[in-house]
Amino acid sequence: MHVDEQTWRAVDAYIEQVIGASDEALEAALADNARAGLPAISVSPAQGKLLHLLTRAVGARRVLEIGTLGGYSTIWLGRAVAPDGQVVTLELSEHHAAVARANVLRAGLETVVDVRVGPAADSLAALDDDFDVIFIDADKPSIADYVLAALRLTHPGSLIIVDNAVRGGAVLDADGDENVQGVRRLNEMLMSDDRLSATTVQTVGSKGYDGFTLALVVGS
């Protein structure tokens, strides 16, 4: 059987239909993101459901997201936390944050989600909370720094999830662009940091060919 990107997209559409990976609030968030001129780089519905399930599996009460965009993944995470839980999400752009807040409000999660605006490094430095899940979907040249900064906000058993960790296979290129170099620096860090046990899972689908890195905090 010949498998190509058209097949990936068709399978994603089938999966989303079968598992019910969308609803009015989620679809409205994507539509408003597009109307507001945000780039179409949110996780796919199936990937959003994966984030949701991982967050529930951990039994997370507190979640940190680095890279809000328009709040699509934020809604998935906010729906997954414990009843008294919270999602703190960090966004550089005030415009993106405003769109995200509106999407979160429509989803009924305004008391669960705290959108904070500013450079992620500064926002991370200002935090002193303990998080059960950390999802990083931000500028790739800085992701190793984000993981290191976030580690002080975790405990053994916390789960760190990094999106776009394969980059269409370009992660193999030692001379790749700054995004590839950022992912490779992260991988080198993960190999040498005994506080983390990690793997990367390749993904295909409506978002193309990429992958997630999953890192479990095993030490402090």
Defining traits:
220 residues, Rossmann fold, 42% helix, 7 strands, alpha/beta
Integer average pLDDT: 95
The tally of strands reads: 7
Number of domains: 1
Please state how the strands of the largest beta sheet are arranged side by side: 3-2-1-4-5-7-6
CATH superfamily: Vaccinia Virus protein VP39
Strand/helix succession = HHHEHEHEHEHEHEE
> What CATH first level would be assigned?
Alpha Beta
Q: What is the overall number of helices? A: 8
CATH architecture term: 3-Layer(aba) Sandwich
- Characterize the largest beta sheet: strand count, sense, and whether it forms a barrel: 7 strands, mixed
**Alpha-beta content class:** alpha/beta
N- and C-termini, Cα separation: 47 Å
Outline of the structure:
The protein has 220 residues and is an alpha/beta fold. The protein is built from eight helices and seven strands; from the N terminus they run H-H-H-E-H-E-H-E-H-E-H-E-H-E-E.
How are the SSEs placed, and which strands pair?
Elements (H helix, E strand, L loop, with lengths): L4 H15 L4 H12 L9 H14 L3 E5 L5 H7 L7 E6 L2 H13 L6 E5 L2 H7 L6 E4 L6 H9 L7 E4 L15 H15 L3 E10 L2 E10 L3
Parallel strand pairs: 1-2, 1-4, 2-3, 4-5
Antiparallel strand pairs: 5-7, 6-7
